[in-house]
Design a protein that fits this description.
Blueprint (H helix, E strand, L loop, with lengths): L2 E2 L5 E4 L18 E8 L2 E6 L2 E9 L3 E4 L1 E4 L6 E4 L3 H22 L3 H23 L4 H21 L7 E2 L2 E2 L7 H16 L6 E12 L6 E10 L4 E2 L4 E5 L15 E8 L7 E11 L14 E11 L10 E6 L1 E3 L8 H7 L5 E3 L5 E10 L2 H7 L1 H6 L2 E3 L15 E11 L11 E8 L21 E3 L10 E8 L10 E9 L7 E10 L11 E6 L1 E2 L9 H5 L13 H5 L3 E10 L6 H7 L8 H7 L5 H6 L1 H14 L1 H18 L9 H11 L5 H15 L7 H8 L1 H19 L4 H19 L8 H12 L1 H8 L4 H13 L13 H15 L1 H4 L1 H20 L4 H13 L11 H27 L6 H24 L2 H9 L4 H18 L10 H25 L7 H15 L11 H11 L2 H16 L11 H8 L4 H7 L1 H14 L3 H16 L5 H14 L6 H25 L6 H18 L2 H17 L3 H13 L7 E2 L8 E2 H18 L3 H17 L3 H20 L7 E7 ...
Parallel strand pairs: 15-22, 36-37
Antiparallel strand pairs: 1-3, 2-3, 2-6, 3-4, 4-5, 7-8, 9-10, 11-15, 11-21, 12-13, 12-14, 12-16, 16-17, 18-21, 19-20, 23-26, 23-31, 24-25, 24-27, 27-28, 28-30, 29-31, 32-33, 34-35, 34-37, 35-40, 37-38, 38-39, 39-40
Helix pairs in contact: 1-2, 1-3, 2-3, 4-28, 10-11, 13-14, 16-18, 16-19, 17-20, 18-21, 19-22, 20-23, 22-25, 23-26, 25-27, 26-28, 27-28, 27-30, 28-31, 30-31, 30-32, 31-34, 32-34, 32-35, 34-36, 35-36, 35-38, 38-40, 39-40, 40-41, 41-42, 42-43, 43-44, 44-45, 45-46, 51-52, 51-55, 52-55, 52-56, 55-56
Length: 1971
């Protein structure tokens, strides 16, 4: 049976449990579980990180821990009873664990490894804490270390700052908000600005000396030297080096390492140096040969100097190699370091090129104890301490030091009868009072232990040596008296014996007889003659002699006359001995009572360090004198006491205050002193008002704290001694003293007056007195003193000239009062609070000293705490009442004031203001948190009028809005923000009642309600309340402590909204945006509460206006900006839709409501797609496509002009980023079209300044031209240049007109001179539900990037859609694919079908120009798929080889505003084998003719393309190429079975003959130009050609081929082009909507446009050499429009998709086996080359692309093509084509063309619609007269009027249909003409907008506005637009840019037929001008 657990509540999983049993709960090791029930060895409970899943688990797997249960029962929470640091550590490590793994994923290796080390370190420390064996101090250190590491990790990972007290996390509910703020700020400051250390230390580690000429031992001395004052700052550090230059005792690190301690901040400057002196120990001269002499001398070696400032940048112990210098003359050795510092180069030089001293130097910061903790290894390993000369900046009591430093300065010696100067060495000894040498008290420096003696340097032959050596004598204090130092002088001989001969000595006693030590300074000592060592054995003999020349008796002429002298400088650093006689006189006052007055007077002149040495003795002396002679010396003793007390205020001696405190507590014995002290103090206070000089009185008042301490202690001693006598008398004295104080404080003075300054001095010292008074007086009594004293201060005067010194001090005094022990007691608080509030209120009202005000308020409020149950004590409640009454209003005003203040410039000031704001905010929050229901009621009742209440509510709402600003608190202060929000929501709930009661119905106040709603919305949208972004543990904690405050506030908003009634209309539409923002918060409960408000708004708006247009408009506007910012999701869209649809079900306006909801939902779909796309990194098609979709939606469905324009610019920026310059131009053109050439002013918008509409349009035009230029779309740029030029001309702005004409000219030059890459086009199908809305189950045609082939494009698409599956076939997918929850991509290459045929068919138009018309403004694309129908003939595949031709029509032409557009219409036709064969040969003929023409006109530098092409055709024909066609179609069976194909068979025969004729002519041309080395090939070709002719059965060409003389304009023969076309049989159509594509206008399909010249060079073996029919099939035209491209395949089996760069290799038949096999496969068997390209060799690829790639179909797509189409007269024929169009101008005829044989007339052609022929042409071609007239194509019919009227455009309307390579089924739109309609009847002209009756209607509601420069005038796509954006339909674009006179209207018209006088209508209403 399951029993609820009582004790077993919390545990940790010891081993993983799979949970395989029924109801089992899977557990991972380390999980924490909460246990609910138990039963026979099993527990039931849940894992704390996932409390929703409950289950059972074995009890043996759980380690139980003690825990404390809160809220026992169903919702109980369990808190483990363990050290809070451990709890925090555990939860933090769990959070870090997840984030740590993410660091690895994000490749942040550095932080990953650092965090790993820190986590391991914390775990190790956690173990130590848990074991519990640590001492209290060690535990404290470990916890400190843990919290430091936790804080570091939290900061690195961007987690929250944790407030702590004593290493434990603080519960915000258990301390006041002000205290919480203080903790947070303290931790934040600590993190941000570490306090600079005032003490610094220099670590030195000597490594070695490197030198070439070593060999002697060395002594190295380091010291710190002040270059400014030329004196050493520290004692010396001494290291001995061996002969190799390494330390002599490497095992003793303290002999190589030292710490120069106690350097002040002032010592870290550039002119402070580390100076190194190096002494060698050896022979006198360094180069001396070794001799018998074994005596060694200390001789100079070198010196090194480094500035201490150089070390400030070095963080680690960097090794430094110091250069060592030697002095040029030994006599300057003493100042070599000064010379190096001054760079006196002439006085020193490098001691050797390779000499250097290797040392490690490092500056350490902080006090020495801190260093011992941080650098433990350093101190445990051993390091010597090198002290400063003198005391450090701060003298610590208890510091023991007694060091005498002696510097050997110089000597003056006589020659002593020698011819050369002496080599003098000094030996130093210290002797005690008995004359015994003191052992080990002579030290050369730290690092080496002291010795018994010290030997100086020896300077060679120098009678005036200067050594500059410093020695240290650490003699104990008790040995100082009677000791002396003796200096013995010896001459060191350089002779063989090397003896050292004594010749004199000096001495100096260390202490004088009166007890004073040797004074600091330089002493000139007498050198006493002495030649025997024995003479010095008895020191008593010479101690009687004078030692210094300063104290030689006047009668001793012998010593006065001597010239020999020795100078030393001494310096004593002692904490016990003094050199000051006045100090000694004062301490021995009883011995000389008559000197007391002088001694007390001189006390002020004594150095402070001397006084603090003897502090206790001095104080005893003073109180001793006071006790004995209080009448006589009372005032002087008091002054001396004041001097000493104030001395301890100095930072140098402040650490001696505890010494004085200890003295007062333990040693002070002046029981009667209090009377004198009170009397003197009162005497001084009474004199304040009248005294002229206040300085001394101010010194007295400054010391009042300690004076009171002495008074109180004295009184206590007296009470103890007498049993409390004279108590009343003492109280009276104190009361009188305070009356005097109050009197002097009540004086009103200017802030600068002396009395005011004295008042300030007293107020600073006064709070320190409270504690002393409390030792004797009761709390209420002391509080009374303080209240009266502070109350006596004059009211805050108006501040003049910003001088508020006294006022500031007053507040400081108040702050210290509030922080004092006195104020903590509730008894005293009720007495002091009124006076504190009075002063505080006055200052805050005037906005003065706000920093201090905040400090006082913080301290006051931190003492007020609610009890656990929420109630507070009556006294506390009264305090809150008082503070609310006095300060709440002024506090709100203050926060408003300082928040609206401009931020000060200086960083320090900015911090100060920030601090003040934070402090006041914390105070406000603390106060509001203390307020209960009663307080709120009293507060609201206290307002006298509604206006006051209104102002208060507005004020507090505004302050709350300030509080929730993100910048109010630092980013990681989440704890503080949550507390703030909790207080705000509690307060708002109280205040909303007041709002309802006082400001509704007739008393409605919009401003208050608006402020309320605005605050609520801001509150809910705060980042710190978005729990979804929190980690699970943080979210759980927040919800447990505060709940979801957003939902609480949302419910409150809904409740308040419902109360508004009809006043809701005031907030429609203003509150729609804010409420929408709230509903977008991803919290389901909040959304459910808030979304119904929109229904309410719609309802009220419907009542008011009859519609809810305003609601719709506002919703749409706000949705865009909010969703762009990342708000909202798919769930929201569904919820919005479902909730509102449900709400409006019963409304009368249901239909319009559903429409609105549908519109908004569709907008959300697009916005969500847009946002998802924009998250991706690089600009890709998805981003652009999504933007286009959204832009169109705003234009067509919402008619939101401004949003439309915004998205135009977003799309423009995307294109620029992706370098799609052409698309960028088209995009910007959309905005340009909305503007007119007018002078209306436009407001500033996006990045446009305020300007006129004309200026903006001009700027847009220039920008678009620039982008067209960059995108190499120069033709479009020219049109805009002309339009701008017209504008400039109309304004007579000839300067700009000139520039524009030059720009236009430059664009023409670029067209002719620069190469343009021909793009590939790809059809992409996006199938499946997983695609974004704008792509789902749609197909698009995409314009590829430069050089992009199918494989690259396919890879790019798969990269953009990484989850997509590439479909491996080109068939249309079925419904299962459409409905699949996946992404399928279907990609294959398609061929463009150009619109502008006239340019492409004109002779003489350069390829550079034609290339533009081939690939721009393309609406239709084609895709061919070959397949076999019926039985496949293995011998000849051509018999059954059909082509399935798919034509795709787009919604917009390419290029446009996007690189891809959706397919609007698909058409499918089938091409028969015979028609296919005709196409192949036609295109081959065209290619041959083009190459021959180029060769003739010398356009080809290289004849190889022609050679290869001839070889390919002739060789293939010989081996069966054309023969296969003969076998297939000329046989009797075929003719009999297909009588309807008679004409086509004739056409095929004609083309074969024509090919033979062209080949013959081509061989003739080839013979003239072929190089010598190619002659054999040419001969072979001629031979093979004869074989080919014979195989075709041609002995000589038929008459109709030979009849017409053939002329080329360059003199070559020319053949008549106007051959008779074949007629398609009426019943030629078969199968699937099949029609014959061969509506041949004779030879007119041979456009003069050819492969571009550069492409022609790449042509190689055009057809295969195999006999297989595949080679012949491969001759068929590639639909590729680019000679450089390989993927524009008419059939995937025909062409290869390999890159064009591979072309040109020789053709090998074996390479094509795969291709041939594929060609023979059925459609199902054959792999599709769009996806798996054929591995054709380069030559074949080139062949398949070169053939006929310039012949493109022309027809007006607005016409429904008939099933039977008759041929039209050719506009291309070499000779007589001009006859078809009378208006052709003469130059048009002068085009280069290859010869075409004349053709026999076809019997079935009709002459009804034949155009009248030009007489000239008729006479040139006599056979024409007998030719039957041609039936025009639908295109020709359409363009009747244009042909006769427009010389410019006639070509494009009479050109008929292109060759099969470019034929498209788009001519057969699937709708035939009515039976009765005459095919020949003229149709409406292109200028009539209604020319296309079917198609525009069908496209009406789908197509976005036209985007192309040409499309703006193209009636192909008249698109109905919203009223404000409608653009009238215009005429068709011409093939070439219009002449200038056609653009004078200023429009973008391209059609030469339009009337120039007709003004262009405005496309948009006037409101767009505001943009």
């Amino acid at each position: 049976m399951w029993i609820p657990t009582e004790q077993e509540k919390y545990g940790v999983v010891l081993a993983s449990f799979r949970g395989t049993v029924q109801h089992g709960l899977p557990l991972e090791i380390g999980d924490t579980v909460q246990i609910l029930e138990k039963c026979e060895g099993w527990y039931r409970g849940f894992i704390l990180k996932n409390p929703n899943v409950k289950g059972i688990f074995p009890s043996g797997y759980i380690h139980l821990k003690n825990a404390h249960v809160k809220n026992k029962g169903q919702f109980e929470t369990v808190i483990p009873v363990e050290d809070s640091v451990i709890t925090e550590m555990t939860s933090t490590l769990r959070d870090w664990g997840a984030m740590w793994k993410q660091l690895y994923v994000k490749n942040e290796g550095d932080l990953f490894h650092r965090l790993w080390h820190v986590m391991n370190e914390i775990l190790d420390l956690r173990r130590q804490v848990l074991v519990g064996h640590l001492t209290h101090d060690r535990m404290r250190d470990v916890k400190q270390h843990i919290t430091a590491r936790l804080d570091w990790g939290n900061e690195q990972l961007g987690l929250d700052l944790v407030p702590r007290q004593e290493f434990s996390m603080v519960d915000p509910d258990e301390i006041s908000v002000t205290e919480l703020y203080r903790l947070m700020e303290h931790r934040h400051r600590k993190k941000e600005t570490p306090t600079p250390a005032s003490t610094h230390h220099l670590f030195v580690h000597v490594k070695s000396l490197m030198s070439a000429n070593l060999g002697e031992e060395l002594e190295v001395f380091f010291h710190i030297y002040d270059g400014r004052e030329n004196r050493p700052l520290s004692e010396r550090f001494f290291v001995r080096l061996n002969k190799s230059g390494l330390p002599k005792s490497p095992e003793k690190t303290e002999r190589q390492c030292t710490l120069f301690v106690d350097l002040g901040s002032s010592d870290l400057r550039k002119d402070v140096y580390i100076v190194v002196h190096i002494i060698r120990i050896g022979r006198m001269a360094a180069g001396e040969k070794k001799n018998q002499c074994s005596v060694q001398y200390r001789r100079p070696f070198g010196c090194a100097v480094v500035s201490i400032a150089d070390l400030l940048t070095a963080d680690s112990k960097d090794d430094h190699l110091l250069k060592v210098y030697a002095c040029n003359t030994e006599s300057e050795w003493y100042q070599i370091h000064e010379n190096i510092i001054k760079k006196a180069n002439s006085r020193y030089n490098l001691s050797g090129s390779n000499t250097g001293l290797a040392v490690a130097l490092q500056l350490l910061h902080g006090d020495i104890d801190q260093l011992r903790r941080e650098y433990m290894v350093l101190f445990t390993r051993g390091v010597s301490i090198t002290r400063k000369l003198g005391f450090s900046d701060v003298i610590m009591p208890g510091e023991m030091r007694n060091d005498l430093y002696v510097i050997l300065e110089k000597g003056e010696f006589e020659k002593g009868g020698k011819s050369v100067a002496r080599n003098v060495e000094i030996t130093i000894y210290v002797l005690d009072i008995d004359g015994q040498i003191l052992k080990s008290y002579v030290a050369a420096g730290s690092g080496e232990p002291g010795g018994d003696e010290y030997h100086s340097l020896v300077l060679y032959h120098n009678n005036s040596p200067r050594w500059g050596e410093q020695i240290k004598l650490p003699i104990p204090v008790d040995m100082f008296r009677g000791s002396h130092v003796r200096f013995e002088f010896r001459h060191c001989s350089t002779k063989e014996k090397g003896e050292k001969k004594l010749f004199g000595y000096s001495f100096v006693p260390l202490m004088q007889e009166d007890g004073r030590t040797l004074p600091d300074g330089t002493h000139e000592l007498i050198i006493h003659k002495c030649e025997e060592n024995t003479s010095l054995a008895d020191c008593t003999r010479y101690l009687k002699l004078p030692f210094s020349k300063a104290n030689i008796p006047s009668n001793n002429q012998t010593l006065k006359g001597t010239k020999e002298s020795f100078w030393i400088t001494s310096f004593l650093c002692s904490t016990k001995l003094t050199q000051n006689g006045d100090m000694l006189d004062l301490l021995k006052w009883r011995a000389h009572p008559e000197r007391i007055n002088d001694s007390l007077s001189k006390l002020k002149e004594i150095d402070g360090s001397e006084i603090v040495k003897f502090l206790q003795d001095t104080l005893d002396t003073l109180f001793g004198i006071l006790d004995e002679s209080s009448q006589r010396y009372g005032l002087k003793v008091f002054d001396s006491l004041v001097h000493i007390i104030n001395l301890l205020q100095d930072s140098k001696f402040q650490h001696f205050k505890p010494v004085m405190d200890t003295y007062i507590e333990s040693h002070f014995a002046g029981a009667l002193s209090y009377r004198d002290l009170i009397k003197v103090l009162k005497w001084y206070v009474d004199r304040i008002v009248d005294a002229e000089h206040q300085e001394h009185i101010q010194q007295v008042l400054k010391a009042s704290e300690y004076i009171f301490k002495y008074i109180i202690q004295s009184r206590r001693l007296f009470s103890l001694a007498t049993g409390g006598q004279n108590e009343e008398e003492f109280r009276v004295c104190i009361h009188e003293l305070f009356m005097s104080i109050r009197f002097f404080l009540s004086q009103e003075n200017k802030g600068t007056s002396p009395v005011a300054q004295t008042q300030a001095v007293f107020l600073r010292a006064f709070p320190a007195v409270y504690g002393e008074l409390l030792k004797i007086f009761a709390v209420r009594e002391v509080a009374g003193f303080v209240r009266d004293t502070l109350g006596s201060l004059p009211a805050a005067a108006v501040v003049v000239h910003g001088d508020c010194g006294l006022e500031a001090v007053k507040l400081q005094c108040l702050a210290k009062t509030v922080e004092s022990q006195l104020y903590i007691s509730p008894e005293s608080r009720c007495i002091l609070l009124p006076v504190v509030l009075r002063i505080l209120q006055a200052h805050m009202k005037e906005q003065r000293d706000l920093v201090m005000c905040a400090r006082i308020l913080t301290s006051m409020l931190s003492l007020i705490k609610k009890e656990e149950n929420g109630a507070s004590e009556p006294a506390v409640s009264e305090e809150v009442d008082l503070i609310v009454e006095r300060l709440l209003g002024v506090l709100l005003r203050t926060i408003l004031e300082i928040s609206n203040r401009p931020q000060p410039a200086g960083p320090a000031m900015r911090f100060q203001f920030q601090d003040v704001t934070g402090e006041f905010v914390a105070c406000l929050l603390a106060l509001l948190r203390q307020m209960s229901d009663r307080h709120y009621q009293q507060l609201l009742q206290a307002f006298g009028s509604k206006d006051d209440l209104r102002d208060f509510l507005l004020q507090i709402f505004t302050v709350f809005r300030i509080l929730i600003r993100p910048e109010m608190f630092p980013k990681d202060w989440t704890v503080m923000r949550l507390v703030t929000n909790n207080v705000i929501i509690t307060t708002v709930l109280y205040l909303s009642d007041a709002l309802r009661k006082n400001f509704l119905n007739d008393k409605f106040d919009y401003k208050v309600w608006d402020s309320y709603f605005y605050l609520s919305v801001l509150f809910i949208n705060q980042p710190c309340l978005q729990l979804e972004s929190f980690s699970p543990s943080k979210r759980k904690k927040t919800l447990e402590k505060y709940g979801d405050m957003r939902v609480m506030m949302g419910c409150e908003i809904f409740s308040m909204w419902q109360n508004l009634g009809e006043h809701k209309l005031n907030f429609i539409p203003a509150m729609i945006g804010p409420f929408l923002e709230v509903t977008l918060v991803p919290q389901p409960d909040l959304r459910n509460v808030m979304i119904p408000i929109f229904h309410d708004m719609m309802d009220w708006e419907q009542r008011r206006s009859g519609n809810f247009k305003q609601v719709e408009a506002k919703l749409i506007d706000k949705l865009d900006s909010l969703m762009s910012d990342g708000k909202g999701d798919e769930t929201y869209r569904e919820l919005f839709n479902s909730i509102l649809l449900k709400k409006i079900e019963r409304e009368t306006w249901r239909e319009s409501g559903i429409s609105l909801i549908a519109t908004v939902t569709r907008l959300m779909e697009r916005l969500l797609d847009y946002r998802d796309c924009m998250k991706l990194g690089e600009v890709d098609g998805k981003k652009i496509g999504c933007t286009v979709s959204l832009l169109n939606f705003y234009k067509t469905e919402l008619n939101k002009e401004e949003m439309y324009i915004r998205y135009i610019h977003k799309l423009y920026d995307l294109h620029l980023k992706a370098q799609n310059y052409t698309e960028a131009s088209y995009t910007l053109l959309l905005y340009d079209e909305l503007l007119e050439w007018s002078d209306r002013p436009l407001r500033e918008f996006l990045n446009y300044p305020m300007q006129s509409e004309w200026q903006r349009k001009e700027f847009l035009h220039l920008t678009i031209v620039q982008n067209f230029d960059r995108g190499k779309c120069w033709e479009n740029g020219i049109i805009l240049c002309r339009e701008l030029a017209d504008q400039y001309e109309s304004y007579y702005d000839y300067r700009n007109l000139s520039k524009m004409r030059m720009m236009e000219a430059s664009l023409y030059d670029k067209i002719m001179d620069q190469q343009r890459l021909e793009p590939e086009f790809f059809r992409v199908g996006f199938y499946g539900k997983k695609f974004p809305f704008f792509l789902r189950n749609k197909e698009f045609v995409c314009r590829g990037h430069d050089y992009e082939r199918l494989e690259a494009f396919q890879q790019r698409m798969l990269n953009e859609f990484p989850h997509a599956i590439a479909m491996q076939h080109v068939n249309q997918p079925d419904q299962t694919i459409y409905q699949a929850d996946a992404q399928y991509l279907q990609i294959y290459a398609v061929t463009p079908i150009p619109e502008s045929q006239d340019v492409l068919q004109r002779d003489g138009v350069p390829d550079n120009i034609k290339s533009f018309y081939k690939f721009n403004h393309i609406w239709r694309f084609r895709y061919d798929r070959p397949f076999h129908k019926g039985t496949k003939d293995k011998e000849n595949e051509f018999k059954s080889l059909w082509v399935e031709r798919t034509t795709l029509t787009l919604v917009q032409s390419l290029p446009g505003i996007s690189r891809w557009f959706e397919v609007d219409k698909r058409e499918l036709v089938e091409v028969s084998p015979l028609e296919n064969a005709i196409e192949v040969i036609e295109n081959k003929n065209l290619q041959l003719r083009t190459l021959i023409t180029q060769c003739q006109s010398r356009q080809m530098q290289n004849v190889n393309p022609l050679t290869m092409c001839l070889n390919g055709v002739i060789d293939a024909a010989v081996n069966g190429g054309l023969a296969r066609y003969q076998e297939a179609f000329f046989v009797k069976d075929y003719v009999m079975n297909h009588p309807e194909d008679g004409e086509k068979i004739g056409r095929l025969r004609e083309l074969m003959f024509e090919q033979a004729h062209i080949l013959e002519y081509g061989l003739a041309v080839h013979e003239k130009v072929v190089p010598q080395d190619m002659r054999p090939l040419h001969k072979k070709l001629v031979d093979q050609f004869h074989l080919m002719k014979s195989s075709l059965g041609i002995q000589e060409f038929p008459a109709y081929v030979r009849a017409s003389p053939v002329h080329f304009t360059n003199g070559s023969p020319r053949t008549c082009r106007n051959s008779v076309p074949s007629i398609i049989s009426p019943d030629g159509g078969r199968g699937v909507a099949r029609r014959s594509l061969l509506s041949y206008p004779a030879v007119n399909r041979y456009s003069s446009s050819s492969l571009s010249s550069q492409a022609s060079n790449e042509v190689s073996n055009i057809t295969g050499q195999s006999e297989s029919s595949d080679e012949v099939f491969n001759m068929q035209p590639s639909p590729s429009t680019s000679s450089l491209s390989s993927n524009h395949s008419a059939s995937p089996n025909v062409t290869s998709s390999a890159p064009s760069s591979a072309r040109g290799s020789p053709q090998m038949a074996e390479k094509h086996k795969h291709s041939r096999e594929n060609a023979c496969l059925s459609p199902r068997e054959r792999p599709v080359s769009a996806i798996f390209p054929n591995p054709l060799d380069p030559a074949q690829r080139a062949a398949s692309h070169q053939i006929g790639d310039t012949t493109l179909p022309r027809s007006d797509p607005n016409l429904s093509a008939p099933d039977k189409v008759r041929p039209t007269p050719s506009s291309w024929s070499l000779d007589s084509v001009k006859g078809g169009v009378p208006s052709f101008s003469d130059p048009v005829g002068k085009l280069l063309c290859p010869p075409i044989p004349p053709r026999p007339p076809y019997a079935g052609s009709s002459a009804k619609t034949m155009r009248s022929q030009s007489p000239v042409l008729m006479s040139r071609s006599p056979q024409k007269a007998t030719m039957p007239p041609f039936t025009p194509s639908p295109t020709e019919c359409h363009s009747t009027s244009l042909v006769s009227n427009s010389p410019v455009l006639s070509g494009s309307y009479s050109s008929g249909i292109s060759s099969l390579s470019r034929c498209s089924v788009s001519e057969a739109s699937g709708t035939e003409l009515p039976a009765g309609e005459q095919l020949g009847a003229p149709l409406p002209t292109a200028t009539t907008p209604n020319a296309a009756p079917d198609e525009p209607v069908r496209r009406e509601n789908k197509t976005p506005p036209p985007y192309s420069v040409y499309e703006r005038n193209n009636p192909r796509r008249p698109v109905p637009l919203p009223h404000s954006l409608s653009i009238p339909p215009q005429t068709d674009p011409p093939a070439l840019p219009p002449k200038p006179h056609q653009l004078r209207t200023g429009s973008m018209k391209l059609d030469g037929t339009s009337d120039p006088r007709v003004p262009r209508p405005r496309p948009l209403p006037r409101k767009v001008s505001q943009l």
